[in-house]
């Protein structure tokens, strides 16, 4: 088995807010991220898939297909959008880096021809990232 | 759902690789330039990955501010702009980046209790990096063995 990773980037805005909490509580917990006008990041997405190498092609996965799935399922939905307001999964969950990694996994799982999803890593900043491996 | 949160920190420190058990000539042969008696330094990158269930109320594995504060107290304040060889933790330990990585892991494992410390990676240069503990080889369709964590 071998792992293959492909990167993509998207730029989006978001804010952190828990509707069940008071404004004070949200500001105390989330700090600047609770600004209701939002703020944005250039996110880097790393999708790692696992599989066996096809002896005919030498590929574990067709990179063009992987790129197209990532573009169609994730980048076209998230890029230049406000995650809280325009992406359905974040109506009910806060678009933290952890939740974005989980959401990306759900969008991609089972849609990559010939390979299994191994890890989704989302960088919000170069020094801050979240990983999701599909664990319950 | 269980996810992992990673954060990168930088610190600058000097070290000299020298084993008292070896002769001067053997030290020079084994460690080369790293055996220079006056030491040399690196800008280390310490990458800390912690795992745990995502809190539905916050969407987070742990509070970033708490992790930053812990790493600052345990690692950055202790080692940044210091000579690793002079530190008591390296009194009987060659401060290779392998050993530094294990020391950092041990300190954080003991100090950070808000999520499981899954792995520590240390980059000594852009070309050399180390990771501890070693994740097992993942099996198809199953979570990365990071999930099990393991500390020696």
Please give a structural write-up.
The complex is a heterodimer of chains A (136) and B (152). Chain A has 136 residues and is α+β, with helices and mostly antiparallel strands. Helices cover 29% and strands 32% of the residues of chain A. Chain A has helices at 23-30, 63-78, 83-86, 97-108; strands spanning 2-14, 39-51, 81-82, 116-125, 128-132. The longest helix of chain A is centred in the middle third of the chain and has 16 residues, at 63-78. With 152 residues, chain B is α+β, with helices and mostly antiparallel strands. Chain B has a single domain (2-148), classed as 6-pyruvoyl tetrahydropterin synthase/QueD (Tetrahydropterin Synthase, Chain A, 2-Layer Sandwich). Chain B has three helices and five strands; from the N terminus they run βαβαβαββ. In chain B, strands 3-1-2-4-5 form a five-stranded mixed sheet. In chain B, helix 2 crosses helix 3 (97-111). The longest helix of chain B has 16 residues, at 64-79. The two termini of chain B are 26 Å apart. In chain B, 30% of the residues are buried. Chains A and B meet through helix 4, strand 4 and strand 5 of A and strand 1 of B.
């Amino acid at each position: 088995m071998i792992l293959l990773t492909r990167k993509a980037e998207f730029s989006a805005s978001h804010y952190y807010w828990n509707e069940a909490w008071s404004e004070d509580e949200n500001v105390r917990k989330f700090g600047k991220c609770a600004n209701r006008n939002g703020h944005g990041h250039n996110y880097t997405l790393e999708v790692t898939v696992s599989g066996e190498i096809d002896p005919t092609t030498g590929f574990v996965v067709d990179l063009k297909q992987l790129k197209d799935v990532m573009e169609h399922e994730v980048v076209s939905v998230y890029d230049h959008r406000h995650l809280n307001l325009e992406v359905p999964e974040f109506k009910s969950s806060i678009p933290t880096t952890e939740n974005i990694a989980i959401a990306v996994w759900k969008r991609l799982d089972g849609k990559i021809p010939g390979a299994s999803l191994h890890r989704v890593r989302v960088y919000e900043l170069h020094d801050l990232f979240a990983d999701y491996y599909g664990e319950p | 759902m269980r996810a992992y949160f990673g954060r990168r920190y930088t610190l600058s420190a000097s070290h000299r690789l020298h084993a008292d058990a070896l002769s001067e000539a053997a030290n020079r042969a084994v460690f080369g330039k790293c055996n220079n008696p006056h030491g040399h330094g690196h800008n280390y990158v310490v990458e800390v990955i912690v795992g745990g269930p995502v809190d539905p109320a916050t969407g987070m594995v742990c509070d970033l501010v708490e992790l930053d504060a812990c790493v600052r107290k345990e690692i950055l304040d202790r080692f940044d702009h210091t000579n690793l060889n002079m530190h008591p933790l390296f009194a009987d330990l060659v401060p290779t980046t392998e050993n530094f990585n294990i020391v950092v892991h041990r300190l954080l494992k003991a100090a950070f209790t808000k999520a499981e410390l899954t792995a520590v990676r240390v980059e000594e240069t852009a070309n050399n990096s180390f990771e501890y503990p070693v994740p097992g080889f993942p099996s198809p369709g199953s979570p990365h063995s990071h999930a099990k964590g393991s500390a020696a």
